[in-house]
Description:
The protein is an alpha+beta fold and 160 residues long. It is 40% helix and 22% strand. It has helices at 13-20, 28-40, 48-56, 69-83, 135-138, 142-156, and strands at 2-4, 8-11, 87-89, 99-105, 109-117, 123-132. The strands form two sheets. It has a three-stranded antiparallel beta sheet. The protein has a three-stranded antiparallel beta sheet with strand order 4-5-6.
Amino acid sequence: MHTLTERGIQSAKEKLEAIRNIKAPSNIKELQAILGMVTYLSRYSSMLASLTSPLRKLTKKHVHFRLERHNHQALDRIKQELCSARIIFYYDPDPAAPTILQCDASQTAVGAWLRQTDSRGNENIVAMASRSLTDAESRYSNIEREYLAVIYGLEKFSYY
């Protein structure tokens, strides 16, 4: 669920409350449910794939499920990221409206966000997205990962 306002779209309060109240998972099934819930809100973060990386590693085959300190910290960072009151502004199709694509890459993920400058000079986020890197992509050099992030952003937001 999302809430539509006159300025844009934001997470429904019930979803944010559910995220805020997430307890640490005790098994893989609970972890998968948590990852599914946070993925539902991925449009509100350009770094969610990077933040969920330590938790997603626990879902791989032949990995013993055991939450460690860094996993708890990752869950806390995910909660903090998703529960920050963020609004995704409506896209202005006017060709004169300055539109900015910003991209970034880490060792584990790429992210992109699209912003537009309004008539008052404020930059507003119109769309955000991220995805995790494959094992092969994670071995790319920094410049190649940054380039991959740009390609990802251009493809992801091509409809704009």
